[in-house]
């Protein structure tokens, strides 16, 4: 039987959990901001998939300026213009380029400028290594994984050896399909700590009543 004291404690925990979820999911204006730019032609819906994946799994707020019809042909040369486009309030900028003639790069990260460029044309062209998803879904997942890894490197995360982790550096094209779409728990915790975000479901100690603090 629940006593009055138990009910009060239970109510306090439920209210605190609700408060924490609101902080993790609803307070998007307080999150670190990432700019997501599109250059050339990329598959329909891809920019939205990447935005939602980053916002859900990294607790960042993604802002997308108007798409640019011109693809990026020289990654190193494009960095200066992209850096100028990255507003001072943005943590970093992730550029997705399609329609490019660059075939030898899946992407490149520029930590000093806080810029990453993903070559969607190259990621689309990799032969299929999954049989249970459509071609379109397979490409979406590749870009989501490499977007997570690019942002991870830009905030200072090291590569991760786990095949289940998006921070793993693929040793070959096939590993892009076999590795995880999200971070492993240690990388997830490290990224949230670096971003100053709360892990969903975790109640900050200072918000707990003294009776339930660890
Ligand atoms: Zn990891």
Core attributes:
single chain; 7 helices; Collagenase (Catalytic Domain); 214 residues; binds zinc ion; five-stranded mixed sheet
The helix content, as a percent range, equals 40-55%
Return the CATH class. Alpha Beta
The CATH architecture: 3-Layer(aba) Sandwich
Task: Provide mean pLDDT, rounded.
Answer: 84
How does this model look, in words?
The chain is an alpha/beta fold and 214 residues long. The chain has a single domain, classed as Collagenase (Catalytic Domain). It has a 5-stranded mixed beta sheet, sandwiched between helices. A hairpin with a 4-residue loop joins strand 4 and strand 5. The longest helix is centred in the first third of the chain and has 22 residues. The structure holds zinc ion. The site of zinc ion has 8 residues, from helix 7.
Chain-wise SSE layout:
Blueprint: H1 4-25, E1 33-39, H2 46-58, E2 61-63, H3 75-85, E3 90-97, E4 107-110, E5 115-119, H4 120-125, H5 135-154, H6 173-178, H7 185-195
Helix pairs in contact: 2-5
The protein binds zinc ion (ZN).
Summarize it.
It contains seven helices and five strands; from the N terminus they run αβαβαβββαααα.
């Amino acid at each position: 039987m629940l006593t009055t004291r138990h009910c009060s404690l239970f109510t306090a925990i439920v209210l605190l959990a609700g408060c924490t979820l609101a902080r993790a999911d609803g307070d998007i204006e307080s999150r670190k901001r990432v700019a997501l730019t599109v250059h050339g032609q990329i598959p329909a819906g891809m920019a939205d998939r990447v935005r939602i994946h980053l916002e859900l799994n990294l607790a960042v707020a993604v802002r997308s300026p108007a798409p640019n019809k011109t693809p990026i042909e020289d990654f190193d040369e494009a960095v200066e213009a992209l850096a100028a486009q990255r507003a001072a309030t943005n943590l970093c900028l992730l550029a997705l380029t399609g329609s490019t003639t660059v075939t030898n790069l899946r992407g490149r990260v520029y930590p000093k400028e806080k810029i990453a460029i993903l070559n969607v044309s190259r990621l689309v062209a990799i032969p299929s290594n999954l049989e249970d998803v459509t071609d379109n879904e397979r490409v979406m997942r590749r870009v989501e994984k490499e977007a997570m890894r690019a942002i991870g490197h830009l905030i200072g995360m090291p590569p991760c050896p786990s095949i289940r982790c998006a921070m793993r550096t693929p040793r070959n094209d096939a590993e892009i399909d076999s590795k995880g779409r999200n971070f492993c728990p240690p990388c997830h915790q490290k990224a949230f700590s670096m971003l100053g975000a709360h892990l969903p479901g975790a109640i900050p100690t200072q918000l707990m009543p003294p009776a339930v603090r660890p």
